[in-house]
């Protein structure tokens, strides 16, 4: 069952959502959007048919009570002033749409439409993923030519209590993408971080796949340090409970109407024969091998998206290096030696940023290259912005990545 994508916009100024005519005017004034119709439906919602960059959508606008439930995840940092505004807000603007096609593009377009309609957003409560998103982050993401990370389309909730070590991990948000939700039963406080990455990697694969990944289908998830692969699959929760007869969380008693429909437990195949015969292995059977620095799959499109965002926002790295009390590192894609070119054209290596000059980063190599000869840790060189694939700013308060630049934006 596909879920609607409802986002509740909390404005800085209440009057920004009181006049529907202003939404229509703002949409019509924007070069990317074209309004085809704007009218009240039988539920007294404003129904808008529009295109954004020629992609057709129907959205519904409604006034919604602002209540932040305890299960909502605060996904971003907010200033004390913004927290006060959120706490005082009573009414927000509900922006509802049904995703059709690539959910990553639909999410991107939904936040762009919100940014166009409402000039000053403090926060957005994304109901399907149960997240509270910063208005500053939304504005920057809407202005970007690079789509947001797929992780914004879903969240992974961890259920446990103080009386047990057991943790039930399950996703929220994938149903709005026309997919099933995924979970891991009988995780623990020691292993749930690794299990979170298993769920996240599977969700990325599901969102990126041009064809639906059906339950029971094998999916490459990670490469383990011992050379084995973690190949995951989705098993309907009622069937999976046969492997977990004593679980306290995620059992039949926890399956309300929402969590009982379209939820599948992640399990593993240990061999191709197991996949053919549908012989499942519990994720827990991989034990500490999942904690031993496994290499989770990052697809080429996601790597390219991350690299494009790092280059697009490199001015924030320059600003931080020159104006903040911080340390900065940048990942540079270096051309590999000729014998490795066919299989691995570039090796991505971290450098400590020492400065900037004429559109280039001055960086000191921090790690030993495997596939690039002639350089070693401690060597300093100049590298083009075009070769940057990631960067991190370390401040006293924490780390800032290309996705987190709202923290230092005006």
**Structural class per helix/strand content?**
alpha+beta
Number of strands: 21
Which residues sit in consecutive blocks of at least 5 with pLDDT less than 50? none
Instruction: Report the β-strand fraction as a percent range.
Output: 25-35%
Order of helices and strands: EHEEEEHEHEEHEEEHEEHEHEHHEEEEEE
Distance between the termini: 41 Å
Instruction: Give the count of structural domains.
Output: 3
Mean pLDDT: 94
Instruction: Provide the helix percentage.
Output: 10-25%
Number of helices: 9
Explain the overall architecture.
With 410 residues, the chain is α+β, with helices and mostly antiparallel strands. It folds into three domains: 5-148, no CATH class; 154-296, no CATH class; 300-408, Roll (SH3 type barrels), CATH 2.30.30. Helix content is 23%, strand content 33%. The protein has helices spanning 20-29, 80-88, 103-117, 135-143, 192-208, 237-240, 272-277, 300-312, 314-323; strands at residues 5-11, 33-40, 46-52, 55-65, 73-74, 91-97, 121-126, 131-134, 155-159, 166-172, 181-188, 219-223, 229-236, 263-269, 295-296, 326-335, 346-357, 360-365, 380-384, 388-395, 399-400. The strands form three sheets. The protein has an eight-stranded mixed β-sheet, sandwiched between helices. It has a seven-stranded mixed β-sheet with strand order 9-10-11-14-13-12-15. A six-stranded antiparallel β-sheet has the order 19-18-17-16-20-21. Strand 3 (46-52) and strand 4 (55-65) form a beta hairpin. The two termini are 41 Å apart.
